[in-house]
Amino acid sequence: MARSAHDKKGLLSEEALTKFRVELLVKGTIVIGSQTLFTQDELARINQLQAEIPEEEVRLGDAGDSHNVFVKRVRVDPPGRSPSNVDGAAPRQIIDLLERKDRGFALKTILGASSDYVIRRCQLHRMPPGSFVGIHLDAESDPDFEYSVIVQLAQDFEGGEFVVYPSAYEQQVFRPPFGAVLVTTCRLRHEVKPVSAGERRSLVYFCSKRSGTNRRVIESSTSGHEAS
Ligand SMILES: [Fe+2]
C-alpha cells in the first residue's frame, strides 16, 4: 500500500477505505496490508495480552465440521445469550484495543455501516504443523455474524492458506502476511489448509450490526466452535 494512501496516523484515507468497501462488496473478501489497521506496537501488545489467556484444543466446529486448532477465547457468543468477555483483564484489554476509535471508524467504513458494528465473538488461534480448520460457514455459529476480521500474528509458517469458496466452482486462496488483516463475509464457506511447518497464529473477531442474544438455533450437540 502506498504511503500516500495513509493519513498521518497510519490508518487509511477515506478514499482508500471506500475502495476497500467496494472490493469487499464485489469479492466478499479483502486483505488490508500490514501496518494499516494495526501498528507493530499494537500487535506486540496483543501478543503480550494473549499470553495471559488459557488455551483449549478445538476438534469439532459449531456445524459438526472438522477442526484441529488451539483456541484462546476473548469474547464468547453462546446461543441464546448475549456476547460477553471471558473473565480477566487481558480479554477486556484486547477488546478495548480492537475498538479504538480510529480503527473502529476505518472498519465501519469498510464494512459499510451507518450504525456501529459490535464485536460478537473474539478469539485467538494457534495452529502448529498438522492443524487445520475444515470448511465451514461462520454464520452457522451466529446468524447475525456479518463479517469476520482476521489479524495475522505470525510470519514464519508454511501452508495454512485461507481458502474461500464463493461458489461450488470457484476458490480464492489468501496468504496474508504478518500484520495484515483479512476481512471476509460470514456468508461464504471457507477453510484454513493444514499448516505444514512453523506456527500460524491469528486473532479473529466477528462483527455484526446487531447486539443482543445469539439467535442461533441448536440442532444437535454443541461444542467449541470454529472460525479462521
Ligand atoms: Fe471461519
Kindly describe this structure:
With 228 residues, the protein is an alpha+beta fold. 20% of the residues lie in helices and 35% in strands. The strands form two sheets. Strands 1, 2, 3, 4, 5, 6, 7, 9, 10, 11, 12 and 14 form a twelve-stranded antiparallel β-sheet that branches. A two-stranded antiparallel ribbon has the order 8-13. The chain starts with 13 loop residues before the first helix and ends in a 20-residue tail after the last strand. It binds fe (ii) ion (FE2). Fe (ii) ion binds at residues 136, 138, 148, 190, 226-228.
Could you provide a short overview of the structure?
The protein is α+β, with helices and mostly antiparallel strands and 228 residues long. 20% of the residues lie in helices and 35% in strands. The protein has helices at residues 14-27, 40-50, 89-98, 101-111; strands spanning 29-32, 56-60, 66-76, 84-85, 118-127, 132-136, 147-152, 157-159, 162-167, 170-174, 181-185, 189-192, 195-198, 200-208.
Strand residue percentage: 25-35%
Radius of gyration: 16 Å
Gap from first CA to last CA: 24 Å
Reading the helices and strands in chain order gives HEHEEEHHEEEEEEEEEE
- The appropriate CATH architecture is Sandwich
Q: Helical stretch count?
A: 4
> How would you name the CATH homologous superfamily?
q2cbj1_9rhob like domain
Bound molecules: fe (ii) ion
Uncertain segments are 1-8
Largest sheet: 12 strands, antiparallel
Report the mean per-residue pLDDT as an integer. Answer: 89
CATH fold name, please? Jelly Rolls
Organism: Bradyrhizobium uaiense
Keywords: Dioxygenase, Iron, Metal-binding, Oxidoreductase, Vitamin C
Pfam families: 2OG-FeII_Oxy_3 (PF13640)
Domain Fe2OG dioxygenase: 118-209
